[in-house]
Amino acid sequence: MDSEQHQGRNFGTSFAAKRTAIMDAFELDGAAEAVRVLVPTGYGLNCEAESAAAFELLGAQVEQVHVSDLLAEPGRLSQASILVFIGGFSFGDHVASGRVFANRMRFGLGRELARFIADGGLAVGMCNGFQVMTKLGLLPGALGEASPEALAPQQVSIVGNDRLGYRNAWVRMRVDPESPCVWTRGVESIESPSRHGEGKLVFASDAVRDQLFAERRVPVRYVDAQGEATSEWPANPNGSPDGAAGLCDASGRVFGLMPHPEAFLYPENHPRWLARRFGAEARPAFGLGLQLYANGVRAATQT
Amino acid sequence: MSVHRLEIEVRPGLVDPLAEATRKRLETWLELSPAALQTRKSYHLDLGLSDEEAQRVLEALVDPVAEIGALGMLPDPERDGEAPWILSVGFLPGVTDAIGHSVRRAASDCLRRSLDGHAYSSTLYLVWGVDGPTLEAAARELLYNPLIERHSLVQAPRSVDLRVPRAGSERAPGVEPVALREADDATLERISKEGMLALTLAEMQAIAAHFRGLGRDPTDAELECLAQTWSEHCKHKIFASPIRYVDPQGDETLIERGLFRSYVRAATEAVADARKQSGADPEGEDFLVSVFHDNAGVVRFTEADHLVYKVETHNSPSALDPYGGAMTGIVGVNRDSFGTGLGADLLSNVWGYCFGDPRGPLRDRSGLPPGLMHPRRIRDGVHHGVIDGGNQSGIPYSRGFELFDGRYAGKPLVYCGTVAAMPVTVPGPPPERAPRPTEDKPIAVGDRVVMVGGRIGKDGIHGATFSSVELDESSPVQAVQIGDPITQKMMWDFLSEARDRGLYSGMTDNGAGGLSSSVGEMAEATNGARIDLAKAPLKYPGLAPWEILISEAQERMTVAVPPAQLDAFLELAARREVEASVLGEFTDDGRFRVDYGALEVCDLSLEFMHDGVPLPTLEARWSPAQARVVDAGAAEAALAQLDCGAALLDLLARPNLSANDDRARSYDHEVKGLSVIKPLLGVEGDVPSTATAMRVRHGRDEGVILGEGIHPWLSDIDTEAMARACVDEGVRRVLCAGARLDRIAALDNFCWPDPIQSAKTPDGHHKLAQLVRCCQGLYDACLAYGVPLISGKDSMKNDAFLGGVKISIPPTLLVSVMGQTPDVGACLDLEPRAAGDRVYLLGATALELGASELERARADAGSPLPPTDLPRTDLEACWARYGAFAGARDAGLIRSAHVCARGGLALSLAHMVLASGLGLELELDTDGLSAAAQLFAESTGRIVLTCAEAQGEAVEAALGAHGLQRLGRVVEAPTLRVSTGAGSGSGSGTVIDTTLAALRGRFGEALHGL
User: Fold this and answer.
1) Residue A48 and residue A33: Cα distance in Å, rounded?
2) What is the enclosing helix (H) or strand (E) of B977?
3) Which of A78, A194, B144, B661 has the CB geometry, 3.0–4.6 Å to B89, for a possible disulfide?
4) Residue B98 and residue A94: Cα distance in Å, rounded?
5) Where does Mg(2+) 2 bind (chain B) (predicted)?
6) Minimal CA–CA distance to B563: which of B741, B444, B704, B691?
7) Are strands B599-605 and B591-596 parallel, antiparallel or unpaired?
8) Closest listed residue to residue B519, CA positions, set B488, B560, B481, B468
């Protein structure tokens, strides 16, 4: 706005000031500024702005690259330490969510993706990104020995919500503290908007499912008002079994979930922010969705 | 070429959600309960594949975990010895099949080669336990729309159906002259009507005269091009023509410059002048950046961004194909805001609908003429269309409303709007890349005309002219287009990149009138353009040149590309899989010239195209069918008998005021991660917010605040009062949420029944007079509030003639308001914060129940209220009040604020309880006005606010001079209790005593499950 003194109000802060405050709050230093984050875009994906902002606010270097350019130069993948599969409607989710996009990645970039993960790369996906990651076999990843040369076969799918149709409402997830997932470390619970029509996890077999739960590779679960994992709507928006909201691979460095923590970068994103701020002393520096990405950046600095 | 068919279904044992939803709809809408129901996806690959290749494509498409599939057919199992009926629903030839496009892409990816031909998608429903004829009838009512979809119904066992809806013909393109020069008046009228040209006799005569002067007849394409350009939809003739107006006092005036120049544009110019006089804006930083001449209005926001806003209507197509028509509405207005200046970044959508009552059973068509869809089905389709269009485009919605009245059963109103952020500058062309203002379009002679995006088909031919006439049995099917949001998203991702590389000099949307309008308009920049239609990519062969010229096929922009940037532009387009075709170039010869290869198709002077339309003087006379005589005494006597608590619960259960979160939550409102005050709020997330707020860019705290006002029922009494009420409510809403007083802009959308006197419209003079008074009210309100009208749209033929029945909408003005805040963290909503806080009403209430929701409820219940006045809106008093309010708000004195709007104070109080889960303990002073009148009158200019007990005195000091009334306090117990004071004239007593649970029960009643 044109005047700092406008009506005598205290102003919100600039991007740079926000970043400084956020990096301080998460105790991130110059190492974070060396973390390179690759955000593939295009083909109907649409969460690039908030996904990029999440990592920029944490000080990392973010590069948005159109998938067609990435397919043309697959080598760009190896320069990144974090790969982000963003939300949206890749190819309209025609046929099935993420299917056409995942095929294109598998046929054009499958080997490079397998190598990136084998080399300790971090990856995170939200919503359509998570759907794509399961259809690529990146999640839950190998169930036995992983191959550095090829993607694992698809073992999990994400299908239409039990209640047909897209719905936008906030959900609460509980984090499994025993999970190997590096992205959820130190976080007890997460609130985020859920915005999808296809979010129900389906496992190739009961054995696959049992193994994933036994290995604590279901790091986030939808919980009800009492904090218990639930498959009941609306606390669980899609009927996913045992409240499973996301998955990680065996290393914990590859993580995906249906809800959108990248849409909770600012305290004012929360639907009850005015009620929460009432009576509070200070304005929080960030929205709690940022915690997950801070964990990812920190893990990247420790590689 | 061999065709392959694929069928895919959910793996046995997993839920088939489409089947579940279909079963529920058959049950609740048609009371039909099949024994079992299952769905499949089916794709026809007309791609010249070998069997082995088709098998590989199938494997790439089927989910190995969740689905099974087959080449040809999956088995159709019997259940209880009964074979299923199989209903197949696909698209008609030529209708956009976005899923089919994706399947072709997927096939090409998996086979790693490019493919010719098409893929076609359809849905199969396998139904057991319903006989064929019943299923046939149910399918027609619920599962397909014969205007755009084909179906087949067979009982198993069936044979493999390999038929595909190939479109097109081998017809050679040709150009035909139309013998206009010698035609008599009857012939001219016949040519216009039969050709769906929507040209009046005077216009046809003007065209004939023009061509007599040229010594030749027009070509079919020239006549079509003029019909599009001169259509009411594109030319706004009713707003441009002089009007002889007789006002309610019987005085006659001549509005020589027409309504748009005299009132709409004049209001904005007057506001701009006043800002200049008062020095409101620093030098070179005018609030108004670009108004009236581009696709959307542009205002100043920060040093980095302007804001763009446009609201459109898409009524006629939505009446015929609610899903496709409404989707085209939203993705079309996206293109308008996107295509403003050199391009803006889309930020948020708004929607609003006016429908007939959706609550009657689907088979109860009483009062509905043949040929009209049931309002429930229209509503269902419209919602789905805008949901899919908005969600798939990745644009969150901010505002959404629904209103219901039987008069919208003929043509529903479907408002769709889009806010965008426009960078103040973008890079110029390489290599200098000097920043240039984004709001300008520096198109130069020699720049190429490039069409970008989708291909051209027969879809959407005559959309502009069709929406310029009433709906009847002969309404053209082709006028309906279906959007393909993904093709469009890929197009604007590409164009945004091209913008930031400085690769083009201008663009505009291909909407109404197609290329004839887009190139015709852009040609005004250089005074000429020449294009070759043979270079335009078609969806299928066999289109005549005139059809190519005016097709409104979706997802297309026309872009001006300087020759030096052409290679880079086309190379980037190819890399992004966006089709871009060079059709011609901009010239300066004053002509719009169109060829098809060697054929001359069109050669029109731009001057005649844009200024040749005759504008006869129209007649307007205020002559209401019956005068309304206000009877205050009788009304107060009736109101004194009213059970206010019961009346409030009844209002909450009326569709106009009931919760619609069931539907609204299917629209994404949070993608982009910028939302602050959401469209739905409160502990249960079901209360519509007063206004919505969102950040505009990540990492910054400035925000945009949106609200609106729409009061169609006021037009039954007085359109001038309606316009004032609409502006007032929209402005009041954004101020409640925290908008700056000095940065408010508004948009006007007029939807009117035909206001031109004719045999079909014997009351045209009055309807036009209603329009005049509406414009006068709008002008006065905008001036008083200092609010410019930065963009607008009119839709003037909202009537349906079917089976001898005419249904006309009530004159309806929508005022959409856009405010700004320097800090979203200072925004407020309507929810009281804490028990003990004080509750005040700011602004006086009068005995204004005319056209109120209570008045309609009483009439529906068979005990009408005696007539009272309608809200008049004291503009000067309101504006002074809002200034004081904004001061108190910015001083941090106020904790929540909500407007009194439809349903009056009572509804606002109910919202506050529903949102917070807290109670209100209030007392009304009934010295002047009965409690019922105070609770249900819809007087404008009022705000209910809460503040901390400790701030009470300061609030009273700040606002006491502006009609501040202390109502009571917020309490912990979740009850709404309103009583009249001991000192009141009518004695003390409780008038409302109801619980949160009771309020929520009724609030969720009317629209739930529809």
Assistant:
1) 20
2) strand B975-980
3) B144
4) 8
5) 336, 509
6) B444
7) antiparallel
8) B560
Element (H, E) at B62: none
Least-confidence region, from B17-21, B43-47, B121-125, B367-371? B367-371
Residues of A within 8 A of B740 (CB-CB) are 6-7
Nearest residue, CB atoms, B834 vs list A103, A263, A278 = A278
Contact list in A for residue B489 (CB cut-off 8 A) is 44, 46, 89
B669 is catalytic: no
Burial of B833 (0-12, 13-18, 19+ CB in 10 A): buried
Domain ranges of chain A: 15-301
Are the beta carbons of B573 and B516 closer than 8 angstroms? no
What are the tokens at B339?
């295509």
Label residue A210 left, alpha or beta by phi (over 0 means left) and psi (-120 to 50 means alpha).
alpha
**What is the largest distance, in Å, between two alpha-carbon atoms of chain A?**
64
Model confidence pLDDT, tens digit, residues B290-303: 998 888 999 999 99
Equal CATH topology for B178-250+441-470+506-600 and B631-685+829-1010:
yes
Torsion of CA B480, B484, B487, B491, to 10 degrees: 60
pLDDT tens-digit readout, A43-85: 999 999 999 999 999 999 999 999 999 999 999 999 999 999 9
Residue in this structure with the two tokens 């080997």, named with its chain if needed: A111
Chain B CB contacts of A212 under 8 Å are none
Nearest to B63 among A91, A96, A161 (CB): A96
Q: What is the pLDDT of residue A280?
A: 77
Q: What is the ipTM of this complex?
A: 0.95
Q: Which CATH architecture has domain A15-301?
A: 3-Layer(aba) Sandwich (3.40)
CA distance A55 to A75: 22
Burial pattern A267-282, b for ≥16 Cβ within 10 A else e, equals: bbbbbebbbebeeeee
CA dihedral B890, B894, B900, B906 (to 10 degrees): 180
| B559 neighbors B450 (Cβ within 8 angstroms) | yes
pLDDT digits (tens, 9 = 90+) for B427-454: 999 999 999 999 999 999 999 999 999 8
Mean residue pLDDT across chain B:
93
d(CA B999, CA B374): 30
Q: Is the pLDDT of residue B479 over 60?
A: no
Query: What value does the mean pLDDT take over residues B64-89?
Result: 96
CATH architecture of B178-250+441-470+506-600: Alpha-Beta Complex (3.90)
Which of B279, B250, B396, B275 minimizes the C-alpha distance to B330?
B396
Query: Which residue has tokens 């002889």?
Result: B244
Does a cis peptide bond (omega within 30 degrees of 0) precede residue A140?
yes
Of the residues A47, A48, A50, A127, which is catalytic?
A127
CATH 3.40.50.12160 at B4-155, yes or no: no
pLDDT at residue A9, as a whole number: 35
B12–chain A nearest CA distance, Å: 12
CA distances from B313 to B164, B192, B362, B392, B407 (A): 34, 25, 26, 20, 17
In whole angstroms, what is the distance from residue B406 CA to residue B354 CA? 10
Fold of B631-685+829-1010: Phosphoribosyl-aminoimidazole Synthetase; Chain A, domain 2 (3.90.650)
- Residues with Cβ within 8 Å of B598's Cβ and at least 6 positions away in sequence, in order, are none
Q: Is the CB of residue B708 less than 8 Å from the CB of residue B815?
A: yes
Question: Residue A3 — pLDDT band, cuts 50, 70, 90?
Answer: very low
Nearest residue to B546 via CA among B219, B861, B257: B219
* Token output for B823: 């800090």
Nearest C-alpha neighbor of B787 from the set B701, B677, B708: B708
